[in-house]
């Protein structure tokens, strides 16, 4: 049985607000495409840890998407909690960063150049996938990517330490939103990010924890472009889908 198709939109280096705009178009397209049928089930021989869906196939263009981007400029964002106070916000703006409230879980964090942002727009109801299992799937795909890159000691920890870690330092932050069973937001993977931007906040609200990057851990420069293909390979394996390149989230 064929696997469900997921559109891939590679935005490149764009402002964070532009990635959000494209994401919202994808969310609207996923809601419009929703029908009574469930997504196809897993194809033959998915790898261990694949996040499996339901049994029936859907005709037509893919209803799900994943939006990939690299923030073009520094920005601090926060979710349902952890908004900075007026004085802290002014200090962050004075450093040259924008501030954006995001509709996701989690506290304040940083996004900027050298970071891979991935916003999967998946229909969890049609996949028959609980939200916690979806978050675990995001962690699993980053762990697969890390193994591909030679970071076998990367690990996921129980809540509240969501994400992927190297020791006590977070390599990848995860914060998701799920409305009417459609996911948005997702993960931020530090590739060659300037980590000093994190010094001015308590990242993700976790006192006493650090942040790290692929470049720091591997001892060499790792650009966002270097990890896109292995990231997408891991995405296909974990979410048991076929990825289809797309330029327009509404097509």
From TrEMBL:
Active-site residues, Swiss-Prot/TrEMBL: 204
Pathway: Protein modification; protein lipoylation via endogenous pathway; protein N(6)-(lipoyl)lysine from octanoyl-[acyl-carrier-protein]: step 1/2
Annotated site location: Lowers pKa of active site Cys: 170
One Pfam family hit: LplA-B_cat
One GO cellular component term noted in the UniProt record for this chain: mitochondrion
Known EC number: 2.3.1.181
BPL/LPL catalytic domain sequence ranges: 60-243
InterPro entries registered for this protein in UniProt: aa-tRNA-synth_II/BPL/LPL, BPL_LPL_catalytic, Octanoyltransferase
Localization, UniProt: Mitochondrion
Keyword terms of this UniProt record: Acyltransferase, Mitochondrion, Transferase
Compositionally biased tracts (Gly residues): 42-52
Positions contributing to substrate binding: 104-111, 173-175, 186-188
Catalyses which reaction(s): octanoyl-[ACP] + L-lysyl-[protein] = N(6)-octanoyl-L-lysyl-[protein] + holo-[ACP] + H(+)
Family: Belongs to the LipB family.
PANTHER family in UniProt: LIPOYLTRANSFERASE 2, MITOCHONDRIAL-RELATED (PTHR10993:SF7), OCTANOYLTRANSFERASE (PTHR10993)
NCBIfam families assigned: lipB
Function of the protein: Catalyzes the transfer of endogenously produced octanoic acid from octanoyl-acyl-carrier-protein onto the lipoyl domains of lipoate-dependent enzymes. Lipoyl-ACP can also act as a substrate although octanoyl-ACP is likely to be the physiological substrate.
Name this polypeptide is given: Octanoyl-[acyl-carrier-protein]:protein N-octanoyltransferase LIPT2, mitochondrial
Taxonomic lineage of the native organism: Eukaryota, Metazoa, Chordata, Craniata, Vertebrata
């Amino acid at each position: 049985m064929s696997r469900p198709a997921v559109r891939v939109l590679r935005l490149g280096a764009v402002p964070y607000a532009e990635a959000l705009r494209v994401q919202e178009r994808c969310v609207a397209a996923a809601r419009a495409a929703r029908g009574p049928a469930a997504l196809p089930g897993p194809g033959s021989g998915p790898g261990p840890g694949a996040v499996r869906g339901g049994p029936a196939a859907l005709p037509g263009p893919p209803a799900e998407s994943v939006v990939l981007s690299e923030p073009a400029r520094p920005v601090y964002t926060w979710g349902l909690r952890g908004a900075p106070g007026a004085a802290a916000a002014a200090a962050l703006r004075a450093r040259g960063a924008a501030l954006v409230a995001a509709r996701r879980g989690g506290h304040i964090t940083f996004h900027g150049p050298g970071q891979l942002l991935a916003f999967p727009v998946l229909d969890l109801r049609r996949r028959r996938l609980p939200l916690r299992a979806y978050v675990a799937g995001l962690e699993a795909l980053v762990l697969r990517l890390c193994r591909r890159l030679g970071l076998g000691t990367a690990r996921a920890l129980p809540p509240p330490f969501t994400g992927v870690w190297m020791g006590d330092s977070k390599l990848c932050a995860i914060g998701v939103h799920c409305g009417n069973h459609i996911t948005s937001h997702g993960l931020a993977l530090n590739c060659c990010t300037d980590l000093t931007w994190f010094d001015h906040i308590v990242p993700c609200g976790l006192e006493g924890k650090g942040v790290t990057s692929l470049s720091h851990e591997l001892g060499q420069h790792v650009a966002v472009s270097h990890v896109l293909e292995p990231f997408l390979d891991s995405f296909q394996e974990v979410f048991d889908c076929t990825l289809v390149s797309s330029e327009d989230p509404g097509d």
